[in-house]
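Deviation from plan, reported transparently: zinc ion complex.
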Amino acid sequence: MKRRNSIFLTTALALLLCCLAHRPFPQPRYATRSPIPPPSAQPSATVPMTKDFAVPVLMYHRICDLTPQEARSRLTFDLTVTPANFEAQVRYLKAQGFTFLTARDVEGAIRERAALPVKSVVLTMDDGYQDNFAQAFPILQKYGARATMFLVTDTVETAGHLSWGEVQAMRPQVGYGSHTVHHYDLTQLAPSQLDYELVQSKRVLEGRLGEAVPDIAYPSGAYNDQVVARTRAAGYLAGWKKGGGPATPTDEPLLLPRVRVRGCTTVARFRQMVWSGVSVQRDHTASRLARSRTRRARPEAA
Ligand SMILES: [Zn+2]
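Because the crystal trials were delayed, the predicted structure below was used instead.
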């Protein structure tokens, strides 16, 4: 009797250990607000992917604390997110299991019809402010978050802006795109000036970085048919504007949308922005499944 009990106990213990060893990581439950393990705790094979992606591409400018005098300027206040708020936003995205992509990842997936993680987000920063290195980069490093910065090439190495050394130091965690040479409104330029802004900024960045720079963010989001045509002729594969919700596979690559994060963006609005992609994806997937069900049902009905 005693021997039978000990055999039973040994077998039960072995089974329990075997189950524990093979227990899968918890699957992410997207579209819920419940806390889930950060992505670093999950093997990459468990990240759900989709070709029906809808990725919120967040647009930031300055990340710093303003002096009371600076904060009185509505424009400056609007352009600036405090480091504390920026960290809270990145921490939230990480805790909710979002994958941080670069603008180039999204542009590449649209062009190649590739899949992206269901819960993805892109952090972009425009204008190349020095605080992007001093304030934002340590936060990006702390949370392992990638980002894309759009640089105005003529302002690099000027007061308040990034140096080329800082630009290099943030690679490869940070990717770069053009934001033209002078940040002029491209819709107001003569054709030769327009071409210079597009071609020269690309040339300077590619020379400094030693790699292709296929992305541009239109200054102030301003574009027209001529701007888009000349941007394409200059060799860009993606043009980022402002507004328009999350980026999806059916977007025109030279008119990709971004969502702006402002100094006054509330926590509730931020959460709405970053979850918007997941709900758009669910709608796309549902309508695609409905279409394929209709197609399958037709021959039977005939
Ligand atoms: Zn700008």
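The first strand starts at residue 49 and ends at 50. We consider this an acceptable substitute for the interim report.
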